[in-house]
Write a structure and sequence with these properties.
Distance between the termini: 66 Å
CATH topology of the largest domain: Aspartate Aminotransferase, domain 2
Largest sheet: 7 strands, mixed
CATH architecture of the largest domain: 3-Layer(aba) Sandwich
Strand order of the largest sheet: 3-9-8-7-6-4-5
CATH class of the largest domain: Alpha Beta
Number of domains: 2
Strand content: 5-15%
Radius of gyration: 21 Å
Shape: globular
Order of helices and strands: EEEHEHEEHEEEHHHHEHHHEH
Number of helices: 11
Low-confidence stretches: 1-13
Helix content: 25-40%
Mean pLDDT: 91
Oligomer: single chain
Length: 335
């Protein structure tokens, strides 16, 4: 049996490479997609990293945003102000100018706003791009940008950050083994059996300390065929757009370089989400908290209430997408 020699380095216990003994999880040692970024343990902690490193006192962020983005702002005692977006998912024109110590956050919605971001960079100083829904979108030089890995892949946590700001002091490395249960239960028992573990894992991010990405998550992210993932997501998106675009009240253009997180299906017709869930097409509802801080006649309220994020990810084929299309068409025909 091989012997493992334990060494302590900067508050992390590391292990020299053992020879022999029991097998570990079989993973390829491939390449990361964001191999030049700062590796952290969650998207909201990447956001916190920026706020701390830049020393901002106030943050402008959209009404239509995950409430997880509020947590670092409140934690650091900063002030913040929401702004409205229009039907193109772009900020309204009546925005105040940002001061030197004020940040402006824009979400790359569904991974479909790359061209607009190139324009926004020129217009807004102190810009922070939330690419949690746009893992494959490349960062723009000197623009603070972060990504969340678990929004696109079967990993327990992990985030990437591009920034030129320096964070004060070294960060400890995280461990992810206790956030892995829902991924394994889904394989062994199915999605329904692992859902409770999934919700518990999501809740744990509320008090997750800012740390480096775990070695387990890093190894998993080195195991992904990113070219194939991007190809499948784009293909599935285009299949749904072709089949459901005539029912969709939101019109977003997929450029040749974008890789979407989902297909945003927006309809005023009630009941589509519940119908699809009954048919085992599991549809999340994004950002329910938006309903609490907007009015019923606002566009953001309607998005939070009625936008149906249809899955298009790498697990699914064109056959799966056609099933979704047929079910939606049946719903509209039968109602």
């Amino acid at each position: 049996m091989g012997l493992t020699i334990c060494k302590k380095h900067e508050d992390k216990v590391t292990f020299s490479m053992a020879i022999g003994g029991y097998f570990e999880l079989e993973l390829n040692d491939g390449n990361e997609y964001h191999n030049s970024a700062i590796r952290l343990n969650s998207g909201r902690n990447a956001f916190e990293y920026i706020l701390r490193a830049k020393g901002y006192s106030k943050v402008f962020l959209p009404y239509y945003v995950c409430d997880a983005m509020i947590q670092p702002i409140v934690k650091l005692g900063l002030s913040y102000q929401h702004y409205h977006i229009n039907e193109n998912l772009e900020p309204e024109n009546d925005l105040p100018e940002s001061e030197k110590d004020e940040a402006f956050v824009y979400v790359n919605y569904y991974g479909l706003k790359d061209p607009y971001i190139n324009t926004l960079v020129i217009q807004r100083p102190n810009l922070i791009i939330d690419n949690a829904q746009a893992f494959f979108s490349r960062p723009i030089k000197a623009v603070d940008t972060f990504y969340s890995a678990r929004k696109f892949f079967g990993v327990p946590d992990g985030a990437y950050l591009y920034t030129e700001a320096e964070y004060g002091g070294p960060l400890k490395e995280d461990y992810s083994i206790d956030r892995f249960t829902h991924l394994l239960r889904r394989i062994e028992y199915g999605a329904e059996e692992g859902y409770q573990n999934y919700t518990e894992n999501e809740s744990s991010f509320s008090d997750l300390q800012l740390k480096k990405m775990s070695n387990l998550t890093l190894r998993l992210l080195k195991n992904i065929n990113y070219i194939e993932v991007a190809r499948k997501r784009r293909e599935n998106y285009l299949t749904l757009e072709e089949g459901l675009g005539h029912h969709n009240n939101i019109k977003l253009i997929l450029t040749d370089t974008e890789v979407p997180m989902l297909y945003p299906f927006f309809t005023e017709v009630e009941g589509v989400r519940d119908y699809l869930i009954r048919e085992k097409i599991f549809i999340p509802q994004f950002w329910v908290s938006v309903l609490n801080w907007t009015t019923k006649n606002s566009f953001e309220y309607k998005l939070a209430k009625k936008m149906i994020p249809l899955p298009i990810d790498q697990r699914y084929s064109s056959v799966d997408m056609k099933r979704v299309i047929n079910l939606v068409e049946k719903f509209f025909t039968d109602r």
